[in-house]
Amino acid sequence: MSGVDAARSEGERLAERAREVRRRVADAAARSGRDGTAVLLVAVTKTLPVETMRLAYAQGLRVFGENRVLEAREKHAALGLADVRWELIGQLQSNKIARAIELFDRVQSVASVALAQALDTRAARAGRTLPVLLEVNVAGEASKSGFAPTEVIEAARAIAVLPNLRPEGLMTIAPMADQAERARPVFRELRRLRASLRAAVPLGPEGGWHELSMGMSDDFEVAIEEGATIVRIGQALFGARPTP
Ligand SMILES: *Cc1c(COP(=O)(O)O)cnc(C)c1O
Question: Which of 90, 191, 193, 199 is the most interior residue, by most CB within 10 Å?
Fold first, then answer.
């Protein structure tokens, strides 16, 4: 197969998967009494080459989720696309904060008050306000970062006063499970936490903390049924990621 044919068929496969994912997002949104456009689809492009990202762009995908700052910077430079949004969804080391601020439109993975404070300082220096989500380790998995549910309100109080961050909501990663249904209590708990937050640390007249980033390839429909406003989808769009 020539390179051109290979690229075309990869594009066709992606087009088909993107259509299917969008249909499933819309159907799940309808089941939660919402329109599919109320759910932001973040295409998780970590480990994928820029060629694949161009194909995603051609399918109308405009929000990319990356988990490594340096990888994202290289791809950002290589792509050179202005009308794309970048979301950081992975752990952020303190020595990469300044570079993360230059690139990312939002950091979804704020998992400590210290990190939030460092982001605030750097955002001030860069003269910008940085939208953030607080990552919550709902299931208390040792392998995952994030605030414990019992810590969220106190952390939110400390973060809400930082002048250069704009807290927009919560993010979680459900435990791996053989059935998506297993993740439902985790997603429900994140939504419940948002309600507590709105009461304890209201941001604006409607309480703020609007965003619930929850749901990945294996469980996004359940997450949307439970109120996800952002889903982060890699493999359902791009096929299986090779395990490193
Ligand atoms: C990799 C990743 C995803 C996407 O996972 P898929 O199974 O490919 O959909 C979503 N969120 C985070 C935080 C990730 O690291």
Answer: 193
Taking CA 25 as the corner, what is the angle to CA 223 and CA 53, rounded to the nearest 5 degrees? 105
Rounded to whole angstroms, the Cα distance separating 185 from 183 reads 6
Residue 234 Cα: closest atom of ligand 1: 8
CATH of domain 3-237: 3.20.20.10
Atom of ligand 1 nearest to the CA of 109: 13
Distance CA 231, CA 18 (A): 13
Distance in angstroms (rounded) separating the CA atoms of residues 244 and 241: 9
Write out the H or E segment, with its range, that includes residue 114.
Answer: helix 113-125
Examine the pLDDT at 4 and tell me if it is beyond 80: no
User: Taking a C-beta distance cutoff of 8 angstroms, is the pair 237, 18 a contact?
Assistant: yes
Nearest atom (ligand 1) to Cα of 216: 9
Pocket of ligand 1 (CB under 6 A): 44, 46, 67, 89-90, 173, 216-217, 232-236
Residue nearest to atom 13 of ligand 1 (CA): 89
Centre of ligand 1 to C-alpha 136, Å, is 15
Q: What is the pLDDT of residues 23-66, one digit of tens each?
A: 999 999 999 999 999 999 999 999 999 999 999 999 999 999 99
Distance in Å, CA 101 to ligand 1 centroid: 21
Say how far apart CA 129 and CA 114 lie, in whole Å.
17
Of the candidates 43, 46, 53, 41, which has an alpha carbon nearest to the alpha carbon of residue 79?
53
Q: What is the DSSP letter of 136?
A: B
